[in-house]
Design brief:
The chain contains 18 helices and 19 strands. With 493 residues, the chain is α+β, with helices and mostly antiparallel strands. Helix 5 packs parallel to helix 7 and helix 13 packs across helix 15. The longest helix is centred in the middle third of the chain and has 20 residues.
Length: 493
């Protein structure tokens, strides 16, 4: 069945009247691999069965949307006031993950979204380890030496305060990962760094973690052996978008197709969406050009095919995915005997084809920069950056109406109280259903129309069977970070 026919079939059977899922983009990255195969007959059968199931109630929809939400406020003075996060799975288990932490040995907050593919393993491991690699890369030499001493004494100084951290590694992997990290710390301490450069430190952290993932999966030194427990991490992959926020300095390190967008309030009080990350996919001509330049001219027609790396991988940079990084001889000797010839991609001649090197952007925050949204491509497939910024902006003004009115100070002039009441009255016009901004975005991404939220539309998307849902949406992970405008207003230039 042609893809166009597939679309028509699904839409005609699953949508009627105003319930048509017209604004939810069917994920072409998934269709190209999953739709045109024999399993699709079963998917269509499941979709017809699903039509006869009872629809979710508004209360059930809200319970699903809020099941993974988290909000965190900070009392420590700084540029970050709070953040909201949420996740909605499409895969089972979800392949996205997220991480938020405060550095304990240096100034700064770290916020990241990680989108896995080929399984959840790589994204989970990277999310759990990357912030340690970044933090240790930012330490000045004296602190780095003290930290190394604490490691040698088996009493490691804490590096991070993590928020909403729900899992840990098993002891065997924890020991392996600790050993790799300690080796990285030793190498950093022996390196004579003259001039610190933030972008270089972030790049080094990303690349070193990726290199450690490779060695942990397949050690080519000494005995040359595979670790089957970590091979799944190395053969799956993950893209990442990480924000480091230190006072007015915002650095974004991005690998792959997650996005970070600033919500900026202009002088005319209109919302502006400012992208502060660079995506690595075939929509980026500079990235395509980079890959073509790194390989011989006779591979120009095979390195990028069907808008994918070697016709298979949608992101053009990623952690893991070592079947696009290891040499052909290594894959043939060690991986093919376990996983078969299909492990080696067609036209695999001059690896590596993939890198985990991030592109780092710097932005100096101003009082006009009100918030930052980091999200996996599951969100950006459904709504645009400008829509996201406008929705969060409206949510900021409307959510004050969800709490009883309290005067911030005991002694206030009547004019100030009157202004507060006027602002609250205006906020009632945009009063949101959800206190959490990430949940607010999820609700609008799935059920938004030009007339508002349509319950039947969002209920359909949330009640689809597992075999069908991936045709309509990806995993979605969102983190909304709010800045303290007063703090930024008084930062030195």
């Amino acid at each position: 069945m042609a893809v166009g026919s597939v679309y028509k079939y699904l839409f005609s059977n699953m949508c009627s009247g105003h319930c048509c899922l017209q604004s939810s983009k069917i994920n072409s990255k998934i269709l190209s691999q999953q739709v045109l195969n024999i399993k699709f007959c079963h998917q269509l059968h499941s979709s017809v069965q699903y039509l006869n199931q009872p629809r979710l109630s508004p209360q059930e929809v809200t319970a699903i949307l809020r099941s993974n939400e988290h909000s965190q406020e900070f009392t420590v003075t700084g540029s970050v006031k709070s953040y909201d996060s949420n996740q909605l799975s499409s895969n089972q288990p979800i392949e996205d993950t997220r991480c938020e932490a405060r550095s304990l040995l240096t100034a700064g907050m770290l916020m990241g979204v990680f989108d896995g593919h080929g399984g959840a393993a790589c994204a989970q491991v990277v999310a759990k380890r990357l912030f340690n690699y970044i933090t240790i890369s930012l330490l000045p030499p004296d602190l780095l030496y003290k930290y190394l001493q604490s490691l040698d004494n088996n009493n490691a100084m804490p590096l991070l305060e993590n928020y909403n951290d729900k899992y840990d590694f098993v002891d065997e992997l924890k020991g392996l990962y600790s050993s790799s990290f300690k080796e990285f710390v030793k190498e950093l301490s022996n390196c004579n760094r003259k001039d610190f450069e933030m972008s270089e430190a972030l790049e080094n952290a990303f690349l070193r973690l990726d290199n450690d993932l490779s060695k942990e999966a397949l050690d080519l030194n000494g005995n040359k052996k595979i670790n089957m427990k970590t091979l799944s991490v190395g053969l799956s992959g993950a893209v990442a978008c990480v924000a480091h926020i230190d006072g007015p300095h915002l650095h974004i390190a991005n690998v792959g197709d997650c996005q970070a967008v600033l919500g900026v309030l202009s002088d005319s009080d209109t919302w502006i969406a400012k992208k502060v990350s660079i995506e690595h996919n075939t929509d980026n001509p500079d990235e395509v050009g980079r890959i073509l330049r790194e390989h011989p001219d006779n591979e120009r027609d095979t390195v990028i095919r069907m808008e994918r790396l070697l016709g298979q991988l949608a992101p053009l940079r990623a952690f893991g995915d070592f079947r696009y990084k290891w040499s052909r001889s290594v894959l043939s000797e060690f991986i093919v005997p376990h996983l078969g010839d299909q492990t080696i991609a067609p036209n695999y001649y001059t690896p590596p084809y993939l890198t985990a090197r991030p592109e780092v952007t710097h932005h100096r925050l101003t009082p006009r920069d009100r918030f930052l949204v980091i999200a996996s491509d599951g969100l950006w497939d459904l709504i645009s950056p400008l829509q996201v910024v406008r929705l969060v902006g409206e949510h900021m003004s409307g959510k004050v109406t969800l709490s009883p009115l309290r005067l911030p100070r005991k002694e206030m002039r009547l004019a100030d109280i009157n202004n507060m009441l006027i602002q609250r009255q205006q906020g009632l016009k945009t009063k949101p259903q959800d206190r959490n901004a990430a949940t607010h975005l999820l609700r609008h991404a799935l059920g938004g129309t030009e007339y508002g939220i349509e319950h039947s539309k969002i209920a359909q998307l949330l009640s689809m069977p597992q075999e069908v849902v991936r045709l309509f949406r990806d995993d979605i992970t969102i983190t909304v970070i709010y800045f303290d405008s007063e703090y930024l207003r008084h930062c030195p230039p």
